Amino acid sequence: MSTAIEQELTAREQFEQQHERTVRDEIETFRQRAESFLAGEISEDEFRPFRLKHGIYGQRQPGVQMVRCKIPGGLLTARQTEQMARIADEFGGGKGHLTTRQNIQYHFVPLARVSGLMHMMADAGLTNREACYNTVRNVTTCPWAGLAPDEVFDVRPYAQRVAYAFLRKDLTGNLPRKFKIAFDGCGHSDCIQGAINDIGLRAVIRDGRRGFRMIIGGGLGPLPVEAQLLDEFVPEERLLNRCEAVIRVFNQYGNRKNKNTARMKFVVRERGFAWMKEHVDQEYADILANGGIAWPEIVPEGFGGYQSNPQPLGNGSLLPVVNAASTGDAEYDRWLETNVVRQSQTGYAAVVVRVEQGNLSSGQLYAIARIAATAGDGLVRISIDQNLLLGFIPLGRLPQVYAALGEVKLAGSRARRIDDVTTCPGAYSCNLGLTKSMNLGAALEIAVRGYDDPQVQRMTIKVSGCPNSCGQHWISDFGFYGNARKIDGKEVPYYQMLVGGGYDGQGLMRFGLAVQSVPARLAPEAVRRILDHFLAQRLAGESFREYVLRYRVETFREMTNDLAKPAELFPEIYQDWGDDMDYSLKLGRGECAA
Prior knowledge:
Elements: H1 3-38, H2 44-53, E1 56-58, E2 64-69, E3 75-77, H3 78-91, E4 95-98, E5 104-110, H4 111-123, E6 140-141, H5 156-165, E7 181-184, E8 199-206, E9 209-216, E10 228-235, H6 239-253, H7 264-271, H8 273-290, H9 330-339, E11 340-342, E12 348-353, E13 359-361, H10 362-375, E14 379-382, E15 388-394, H11 398-407, E16 422-423, H12 437-448, H13 454-457, E17 461-464, E18 478-487, E19 490-499, E20 502-503, E21 509-510, E22 513-519, H14 523-537, H15 544-564
Helix pairs in contact: 1-2, 1-4, 3-4, 3-10, 6-8, 7-8, 12-14, 14-15
């Protein structure tokens, strides 16, 4: 072994040992603080910020927590996915939930057991540090990175290092509000919706040099804002410096007095984009002159799916034995059409695994890990639409993968179609949830499943349980967020309906237009009415948003007025989807679940 390799191994070993000590020490510190809180030695107000910084949320149910695991870039190794399954069994009631920021969450975990869960995460190189609170949240990355035929370059190594650079830093650990960063390497699409992030980064090559187009100041919540262009080109060696400069300005000028106007988008709104750019440039010049957060040459093993010794491609040995001639049924053909995409590497395909409402059982997680290791590249990719992606599946092995997914009820077709609905957990667990958004998502899925028109099939539906947009309702063709009203003195779950969100023909992010609130039980009928009208009245080549703008909101409001104020009531109207008892509005203290 050469001296250079020996030195490199020694440096990595030392780095991993120090990282391990840091992680284990902070988990034990969490254990001690949690025990002090449970013993009544510190107050809830004293404990809450510390708890949130470690990715632990309170739930609307007393005595239990939601624990969020941070998945940098949405990338897991097969071994880590197996560990997620073990954690689900041990702590999560056999369940895990995929979020719209590529995280995995576990619900109903008693606080006294949380540190044990954290240690199990650490065993696989995972953490929940800064998955919540006023920090740099999970750095999201296009799930097609390394696979897409139109990829400019693979952005995963940059996302991994930026995510690690901003973890456990004084600058980023107590910001005015949460801060979100997204990376995209595709040439002709925005798979990661950079425009709704505080920093959106798109791969660019200029004069043979790698770099990024940087937009800043985006965000959703009750008041959505699209990010604006800061730089056409940031060279790769200055990427971290430029990101830090933006965060410094936000840290200094963000509103720490009012949580509702604390995001960076409000700094831009109140002071103007020219002012923002001037101050970012000033901080950037200071970093270049005096130094800033260092670019990490090494990231920990498993961080963002990083493997110092990547496993070889799978040989299919643990997949079901399938007679390929017997798989040519209609459902398999539909799965091939909607869930399988040829990737840039000849002879391989990427498979989208549709996950209903983002909910996975431990058995399904074990199966996904096995398939990724046996048939793919040993990696599992989480997408922001709450699905999974498996890459490097040999084309000849697709029937076996389909059969293996079918064994655990994950072989559903129509991924990324209108009935592949995105939802947040809503009132299932969240203190701010007004309605059970996952249940409405399931009802909407059934309501639109019969539409086979290709243009309708390409539409999207997103549902949030409150106005805070964890389900990203602003950026879909049909968006819903929960609210409540009274009819004849009785509380009724309602949803505000929006139409026409998403990207326009020029690739610009557009937010949905608010129609009106309709009772939860009548929301599927509202969607059906508008879809039927669209199919009957659209012009040749007209997009759904163009149709919405042509007819104006008043048309859709009139179309659904009888639903918003129903003349005839029925018992279920007083019940949320999935409930058999009358609705009752319940709220706790919000802790920002997105």
